[in-house]
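Re: adenine structure - here you go.
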Amino acid sequence: MNYDIKDIGLASEGKKRIDWADNDMPVLRQVREKFAKEQPLKGRKMSACLHMTAETANLARTLKAGGADLVCCASNPLSTQDDVTASLVKDYGIPIFAIKGEDNETYYKHMKTAVEHAPVVTMDDGADLVSMILSDYPDIAANVLGSMEETTTGVIRLRAMEKHDALKFPVISVNDATTKNLFDNRYGTGQSTLDGIIRATDVLLAGRNVVVVGYGWCGKGVAMRASGMGANVTVIEVEPVRALEAVMDGFRVTGIAEAAQYGDLFITVTGDIHVIRKEHFAVMKDGAMVANSGHFNVELDIEGLTELASEIRRSVRNFVDQYVMADGRRVNLLGEGRLINLAAAEGHPASVMDMSFATQALATEYVIENEGKLDNRVYNVPNEIENWVASLKLKSMGITIDELTEEQKHYLASWEMGT
Ligand code: ADE
């Protein structure tokens, strides 16, 4: 079997982490059992470009249990857990091409290997794999039945492809499933982003001015958790309704130019480019910390920051680079501006990835079941999948909920009864 990982000798540590995560992934486990029996992916070539974590390992095991001929590569150069990839290769026989800290050239070489596997189904976290297939491999694209996308950033890119007629196969937006974004984006990003920042810096959040840029589900989660830890949270948001929501959720809302002057910690979660720019870095306080938890590091204008700096002190702590301004002020960039939750911590905890990845696996089955019936556009996850995942999650938590009575069903379906 061909693979490229850091060190196969790390497998036993990785296996322990995969098992630990699996304990908190009961829904995905059930999907795995169902897949093992029904073999819905039997013999289908798949390539997955995802963060190579313990949670992803359990998804990969599930796809393999369903019969898929799977190859994986990383969706970010810094998010790979090298012990996990070792175990995936050694204990589960899944070819992996990913090494934590790989340079851009290696990152794309690994992705190319996953593309040249000639998958009929792909899975992406950021749409890099789909972009490569559509740009450079038209023959492979012609055979792709469908693809799944995990992130807001990826869905934005895919919708742009759809609009420009560049999308050559259907895509299921797993990111837009409520079983994904309400939990993974909100509670997962909320907790893991602060976890990454705290592991990288060891700072106390209570009493600090934390500026959260973006108030989508991820931003809401980060703002809520930072506030819960005693920070004074400011939200920066360009969409009026969301900005108003942030105001009524109790946060200070302003523009980045103003917040740049008083923030102690800046966290970007927008999915957009250069939301903190050179002119904002230029007015930051001494000791300001800047982190990104959006998919790509383009949210921060790192080139602009570099131009401002008279000195760059690399690795003043693990995952902290210090940019020193001409007047001596220091701006600390965390995790090279890459998603801090995966760079400096372990990403979202298993119990939220449980729902996202169960949804991914079931969406894969859906794409294969609907071979030839879907158009080349971005689809939402079918409601039945979402309801199934949510019901199983509740059940695994020991929670039972009421059902509508016949009278209530009738009432909801009628219009005659008023006051
Ligand atoms: N994205 C965010 N957290 C993750 C995790 N733990 N595994 C895979 N992808 C993730």
